[in-house]
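Checklist before submission:
- one chain only
- standard amino acids only
- sequence pasted in full

Submission:
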Amino acid sequence: MKNIHDVGIIGGGISGVVIALELAKHKVDSILFEQEKSVVNGPPFCHLHAGGNLYPDISIDQCKVLMKQSIDMARLFPHSIDERPTFISIPKSETYEPYIIAQRLEDLVSYYKRLVTQDPLNEILGPPEHYYKAYSQADILALAEKPTVKRPATTDEWMTNTLKLVDHTKLKTPVFMVQEYGWNLFRFGAQAQLALNKTENCSLNTNTNVKKIKDVRDKNLGYNWEIQTKDTTYNVKYLVNSCGFKTGIFDESLALNPERLIEFKAAYISKWQPIEGLIPELIFHGKRGTPNGMAQLTPYCDDYYQIHGMTNDITLFEQGLVRSKNNSKQPKFNEAISKKLKQGWDISEIKRRTENGIALVSKFVPTFKTATVGGPPLYGAQQIPGDDPNLRVGEVSFPCKSYARSEIIKASSALTVAHQIIEKIQEEGIIPEMLKDDQHNDILSCISKTEIDELAETLAVQRGYPKALSRLVIDKD
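Returned file contents:
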């Protein structure tokens, strides 16, 4: 075992593993600590957020950042991307108007065109001119008469299948079909773990809980931090805090005091009747935190569906959003949420919240009322740097020398953060100057689809979920 590592990374979530993989690409030595037995165990993600289409109130600048970051991540992890579109609509009960979505989508098309012009390999979401399509009331009535298509090949066919199930009379027009793709958590985790296990440049330590960090920067020891686990002390030159919602724990021990929010959320697994043709992800926008909060239905294989309902009795929780206080910079959840994170859920609450989600979706998809509980929730907590709960683009901060704090909010930001951290490590002279980062990593490219299929299924089953959740709805050759 090496006595000194160039970089120590605490936390093997999506940010930690991407940082480690990018360092390994440049043959930089690192050590990664993850307390669970596999990587990427944080809050669930199921789509790229390419363009922020699930957040109608964020700025167009944030939307563009999310689109660029999503494309970058999709290029690195193509075997985890489900290339099916997303149906986006606004119920008649809401004050929000479709023209606002239409204008944003037009802006995103222009931006996407620029990205593809800069690099043709950025055409991840299909041709820019086909990024979205709006459907008027007349369009809807015409398509509703067409037959179901088992495997849709065009935007109109996806819309036709959608209209067989959705009660469009409850929706404002136009409605939209957008090339916002799915992103499979289990497949991402599998590819990342396989790659880390194969590289000689990263020491992956799972089942390892970091107990303490000691600052020795003033000791002239040839390293700056001592990372203490139960049995061993590891010495590193540069420290990356990638602990997600727990980043404040180590900040406190190092007398660093940034403000932050943390939020607990959950998505629910349902099993529904077999239907004749594939459907896209379905979004019915509504005001967050109200009884009419956004409803989201994400299709998986074998008739499983994931539900988000942005209400306090489904995805959101009373006291689920908490902020740091003067006497503690690590926000603390109440006892009920802490119990979920540490010990799991009561079966009765799983049933109640899943059924609440089914009822919410059934307002717009009437036959979905026959769905049942399909498995345990996907859940976790995320950090939000600062004090703005509407922030969706987080990055990284450098509160002191030789220390970085990853502050991603969305999974798609992980590569951006990795590049920012590597640039800072180079500035400090800990690693040599490198060539400009590109959107390719040979360590990831050498992992086969078969390997990913096998480990992704294993990870899903190990964590108590149906193995169908590890597969893509539209499989890739």
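Reviewer check: The radius of gyration is 22 Å.
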